[in-house]
Amino acid sequence: MRQKGKSIRMNSTDNDLVKQIKKGEQDAFRILYLKYSDLLFAYILHNLNNNRGNAMDIWQDTWCVAVEKIDDFQFRSSFFTWLCSIAKNKISDYYRKTKRQAEIVSTEKLQFDIDNDDIDVDQIDAETQSNVVSALANLNNDYNYLLTAKYIDNKSTDEIATALGKSYKATESMLTRAREAFRKKFKQINHSK
């Protein structure tokens, strides 16, 4: 990808991409959009009790605000955390406007165990789900791919190994490291609230 004579690398950090966006390089924004689009929608959807129509509206509004306010991004948090804070404000506005705040039921958090092969996503409360999405988004691309393939796409370790062109044992080791990295990020997110 090229814009204004400068190459934008797919493996650029989010902060590097934001700096490029602030210099007017539109392809950098496209990379961030592709990277976080689905994760942001999942975050919003979980916080709206799976109301897809309203989630889509808030998702679009969030991206519009991100485009308008990108120059205000101060690098104090990850880009995805910043996006989620915009979405959180939009979600709060939605509940205020529709006077549906009373419908938000406070549920006891379930213990989220990344090692459990029988994770029932429907039994995990919205806050925990959004914390999972945030933790995944803050992992490196390899770990994000491994955990998404294993726990969201329900692929076997053999299928993942084949896709990566690695041995079963090497893939199993990478999954172990990915789970440990996820645990640390998830713990940080939960303790920061």
In whole angstroms, the N-to-C terminal distance is 38 Å
CATH topology of the largest domain: Rna Polymerase Sigma Factor, Chain: A
Number of helices: 8
Unreliable segments of 5+ consecutive residues: 1-6, 100-113
Order of helices and strands: EEHHHHHHHH
The name of the CATH architecture of the largest domain is Orthogonal Bundle
Q: Work out the radius of gyration.
A: 18 Å
Quickly give the structural class.
mainly alpha
CATH superfamily of the largest domain: RNA polymerase sigma factor, region 2, helix turn helix motif
Overall body shape: globular
Report on the biggest sheet: 2 strands, antiparallel
As for the number of domains, it is 2
Mean of pLDDT: 78
Q: Strand order within the widest sheet?
A: 1-2
Into which percentage range does the β-strand content fall? under 5%
Verbal overview:
The chain is mainly alpha-helical and 193 residues long. It has two domains: 12-103, Rna Polymerase Sigma Factor, Chain: A (Orthogonal Bundle); 139-193, Arc Repressor Mutant, subunit A (Orthogonal Bundle), CATH 1.10.10. The chain contains eight helices and two strands; from the N terminus they run E-E-H-H-H-H-H-H-H-H. Strands 1-2 form a two-stranded antiparallel sheet. Strand 1 and strand 2 form a beta hairpin. Helix 6 (141-152) crosses helix 8. The model is unreliable at 1-6 and 100-113 (pLDDT under 50).
Structural topology:
Blueprint: E1 2-3, E2 6-7, H1 14-22, H2 26-47, H3 52-69, H4 79-98, H5 126-137, H6 141-152, H7 157-164, H8 168-191
Antiparallel strand pairs: 1-2
Helix pairs in contact: 1-2, 2-3, 2-4, 2-5, 3-4, 5-8, 6-8, 7-8
